[in-house]
Design goal:
Layout lengths: L9 H7 L5 H20 L1 H7 L2 H18 L6 H29 L2 H30 L13 H11 L13 H21 L1 H10 L5 H29 L3 H17 L4 H30 L7 H27 L3 H19 L9
């Protein structure tokens, strides 16, 4: 919900700030990702300064104030300051949201919980995007009120999250990156691959599908990823050894289908495969990383995975579009090529890695 939630309102925001540099309008969506990454780098320090509940509530309070506070703004530069603060808030929350699962629950329960976490991320994105679109129809600034949903999380955290002191060990280092590079690089590739879809599908499918049909197909992808997240734990228990191939194979097959043409069957099949790949890829990497890190996951691997996730989101169009333009091929073929690289990375880096017993 950092940047993508507000995406449906971007056209209306662009009209309101007509005459401003288009890049500034695009930064409304993309700027939070940069500040999430920067905050993740300092997350272990924040853990040394604050206990878990205090840190979570501080992040959520800033999330609500910076997100919904943009409702009162009518200057593009002030709006971007609020969006940067939004990124800081999510950078404080994200490592806790998955890292505490490793802290409080044994390894055999983490796959199921990571799947549920990923499923809730997908459904939260669907709900937030839908609400932001409805609110934007009232006026451009109403879309930012969607961030008031953070109040619900604040109440739950205040009532139920223990206030404990995490070790604060970690931080970015070569030794840490060396230890967790299979998951960190994998998360970066998953996000580079996934964001090819939302940045290109509406443009390429509009020639054969109506605007409503395009929206339904894209929402359907999130629903597929949500359903996969619900059953991820069972899949890991039954197919633990084979799961490393699932996400890269799904992305490769999905983008080859989309590259095959704008036939409805290819569009639907490609979208389903990409939804499955995304629904497996994120919780798989979180699970492998958290089990390996143990109780220190929140301050070691999770900030790295969160930074890799948002770096992949931010760089995806900057990587894919130039390659597609220079090679004269569709972005989907570039996606299939990157998915093949991801498959090789998974095979090579996890060849000797023992999977957790789950």
């Amino acid at each position: 919900m950092a940047g993508a939630a507000i995406a449906p309102a971007l056209g209306i925001i662009n009209k309101h700030f007509a005459g401003q540099d288009p890049l500034l309008i695009q930064l409304v969506v993309s700027l939070p990702a940069l500040f999430i990454i920067l905050t993740n780098l300092f997350f272990p320090l924040l853990c040394r300064l604050m206990k878990t509940r205090t840190l979570a509530l501080t992040g959520l309070m800033l999330y609500v104030l910076a997100g919904a506070g943009a409702f009162f703004v009518d200057n593009i530069w002030v709006l971007l300051v609020f969006r940067a603060l939004m990124g800081v808030s999510v950078g404080m929350i994200m490592p806790l949201s998955t890292g505490l699962l490793a802290y409080y629950f044994p390894p055999e329960e983490q796959a199921g919980l990571m799947g549920l976490s990923a499923a809730m991320n997908q459904m939260g994105g669907v709900v937030a995007t839908f609400l932001a679109g409805l609110l934007a129809s009232v006026n451009w600034n109403y879309a930012f009120l969607v961030y008031l949903l953070g109040v619900i999380a604040m109440i739950l955290v205040a009532l139920f999250l223990p206030n404990e002191r995490l070790s604060g060990r970690g931080g970015v280092s070569l030794s840490l990156l060396k230890r967790f590079h299979p998951s960190v690089v994998g998360m970066f590739l998953v996000m580079v691959l996934f964001f090819i879809y939302p940045t290109n599908f509406a443009l390429t499918a509009s020639s054969s599908l109506s605007e409503m049909a395009v929206t339904l197909v894209m929402v359907g992808l999130d629903v597929v990823a949500f359903l996969v997240g619900l059953v991820f734990g069972a899949m890991m228990k039954r197919f633990a050894t084979q799961m490393k191939y699932a996400a890269p194979s799904g992305f490769m097959g999905g983008y080859l289908c989309l590259a095959a043409g704008n036939n409805l069957v290819w569009l639907l099949l490609g979208s389903v495969l990409i939804g499955i790949a995304n629904g497996i890829g994120v919780p798989y990497l979180n699970t492998i990383g958290s089990v390996k890190a143990g109780k220190d996951a929140a301050t070691t691997v999770m900030p790295l995975l969160s930074a890799a996730l948002y770096l992949g989101q931010f760089l995806s169009p900057l990587i894919v579009s130039p390659i597609a333009s220079s090679a004269g091929i569709s972005p989907y073929m570039v996606g299939a090529g990157i998915a093949f690289i991801y498959l090789l990375q998974a095979i090579i880096t996890r060849k000797q890695q023992m999977l957790p017993r789950i």
